[in-house]
Structures are given as structure tokens and as C-alpha cells.
Amino acid sequence: MKRILLFALLSAVLTACGNGGNSGQKENTGEDAQNTSGETEEQGQTEEPGEGQQSEADASEIIDQAVAEWEDVSSYEARQTFTISSGDAQNVVRTITTQSEQDEVKVEVDNGSEVDSHYVIDGDHFTYEDGSINEEGTNVDMGGSTYGEIVQSLEAFKAGDATQTEEGYEIQLPVGSSEDVSSFVDQEMLESLDGAESLNGQITVMLNDEYQYTGGKMTLTLEDEGREVNMISNLEYTRIGEIDVLEKPKNM
């Protein structure tokens, strides 16, 4: 279920990937600090970052703080836009995922021609169309779908490069193979990526100054049999911890 929180088009809707590791914050040694101080005195002025300039941060500390602050929260609303293009063809899918504090989930999928509404209530999967409720045959594993579990799955981003921004923090991870995105996509999509001749891109996650995970972006470019395919996913989390009960059709 957690994958639907990131990539709905791939039957998966930014969570975990890669292996652990730290992107350490650079610090001057005592000697470096003295040299810098001396140079500054000679110049007669201090050098300050320009407006909007990003400064380095420690990805491991950021993720640890996010988990400590938000691991017990369940609810959120996630809005995602996924664009896949190749040559003159382009397909855009938009999703809205809503999770309540009661561990109920609603996913709306807009493929440009129609909107499908899916509900997961107590593990049971329902679709809602034209005023009718339809119960699907298979139950859905809700593991990993809460906001706290999503934040915990960011542990692997400790291996990324972190910067401090005006809004909070950004952590970036490069993508060079299908293994780097194995936790983002379902098995079918992973097998498709495995068959590509080349794959590269980047995944970025954003957190605010309260260490809330507020969204992310993924860009991927793959080549196969001379054809280039570009994928872009943008994701935003809002209403974190604010949805007590999910609004759903009557009699569901």
C-alpha cells in the first residue's frame, strides 16, 4: 500500500530507496578556521551567502529529527502529478491521496479523460463510480501507508546530499540504475526498468523547518532500443495530522 503514496501511475503513489549512509555537514578544522579568519581580516570584510543561497546540512540528522517529530502521525493529503513522455507522445496522470487518522484511504486518479475513486476501508478495497459502490475482490495491505511510516521510510535518504533552504531542507539522491528506484515502483515496472539500456535521473525530497516531509520530485530518463522515455513526478503533502475521519459515500 505504501507505494500508492508515491507513484499512482506505477501502482505505487516519494518513500524509501537505496542504502544507508550520511551526507556529512562540512566543518572547518581549527587550522582552517584560523586561516579563514586571517584572510577575512586582511580583506577587511566578511563573506556572507547571497539571498536565497542554499547552505549544506546533514541529511542523517534531518531524517532522524523528522522521524522523532512525526512518526506517530497517520493522516495527510498527497497530491501528485506524473508525466511520462516519449517523442511526440505524452501522458499525464494526477492523483489525490487522502489518509485519515482511522487508517482509511481514498485515492482519486485523473488520467485526463476520467477520474477513478478508490477507497480502502479496514483492508477492503472499494471503487466509486456514477454513484455506485463496487467492492473489489482482493484485500489491500495497508502497511506503510500512514504519514509516520512514510517518514520512517525516508531513512535511506541519509545517503543523499542535503541543503538548507528558506523553507527548510532538501535532500537529493542520484539515480543511475533500476536498483536505485526499486523501493519506489512495483515489480512489473521494475522489470521494465531493468530492461532499459540506460537509466539516470534524480530524486529530491523536501522538508519544512518543522521537519515535516512536504513533498518531492523525481526525474528519470531511460533509453531502450533507441527510444528515449522521460518521467517526471511531483508530489506535495498537506493537511498533515489534520484529517480525523475520511469523507466517503454513504453505506460504504
TrEMBL record:
Residues 39-50 have a biased composition (Acidic residues). The keyword Thylakoid does not apply. It comes from the Bacteria. Keywords: Signal. The keyword Signal applies. Residues 1-18 form the signal peptide. Residues 18-58 are annotated as: Disordered. Residues 24-35 have a biased composition (Polar residues). This is Lipoprotein. It comes from Candidatus Salinicoccus stercoripullorum.
